[in-house]
Amino acid sequence: MQNARLMSVTDLAEYLGVTPAWVYNNHRALNIPACKIGGHLRFRPADVNRWIERDCRAAA
């Protein structure tokens, strides 16, 4: 198991250079891998990076 800290919506927004509202509004439509913990969205950094690699290659 990886010991990487899960990212919050705010963390992910900063990482992607978007607003937290953008993450909330688009995570389902764009299939950003997430899990809900305690009612809050959380993101595994490795999953997010794989999603970026996959989707950026598909869009290029």
TrEMBL record:
Q: Which domain of life is it from?
A: Bacteria
User: Could you tell me which InterPro entries the record lists for this protein?
Assistant: DNA-bd_dom_put_sf, HTH_17, SinI_DNA-bd
A single Pfam family it belongs to is HTH_17
* SUPFAM superfamilies referenced in this protein's UniProt entry, alphabetically: Putative DNA-binding domain
Coiled-coil zones: none
Residues forming the Helix-turn-helix domain are: 6-54
Q: Which NCBIfam families match?
A: excise (TIGR01764)
Name used for this protein in its record: Helix-turn-helix domain-containing protein
Taxonomic source organism: Streptomyces hesseae
